[in-house]
Amino acid sequence: MLPKTTLLQLLATPEAQRLAHSAPLDLLAQVLSLALPLIDEIHLRSVLGTVPPWLNQLLVLTNEARTATLQRGLEGAEREAARVAGAILIVAGPILQVALPIQGRVALIEGLASALRNGPAPLPQLADGVVDALRGDADAQIWSRMRVLLNEALTIKATIEAEDESSITHSPIHLPTTLSSIQATVSARRRSTISDSPIIIGNSPPAASSPTHIRTDHSPHPHTRHHRQPRHLPCRSTSDPPGE
Q1: Longest dimension (CA), the chain
Q2: Residue 5 above 80 pLDDT?
């Protein structure tokens, strides 16, 4: 851990340059740890949507303990650690742009980019946008677009589709309890049926009073439903977890 305790001081030290070359993930963890107290917590929580306990733990730690926790989470490819790290980076991005020194700026940006590209999902998806923003090669809306990109990367997508004149039945999907958004789609095309094919979140059984049954007779257009909150979702036969 560097002896300096502010973001400006951290980035101005020769040690930060060394970390950018030899231990970029450590540099990222230290930058995120020092940036966290500087950003608006309400804004951060709005980016995350559902706030994980992992963030609440970080908020009460000292800087040294917070850095160590971030390092362990990122090195261990913990999904919640990467999710929180991505959100901190997006909210703190404008502050980081100002804090980066002129001398050694390129090396620091390259080090942070390396940490993102080699980190756990969704960090690799954010790398190019973060680099463009820190270099000054992007417009003022880049961080808003990065927020959308983060949300898309964290969304679990689940879909079931019955082609024309086909039938899908008894094809449930079981997903673990998650803090991520879930986008679920049921699509039954012309003269098709889908029945008894729910998406189940966690260990709870699907509601017996509302079995899935969709039937189309003549419409050439698919019947589609979207849900974005964790609950029993009448759906599907393939699922795409975020970051994979």
Answers
A1: 71
A2: no
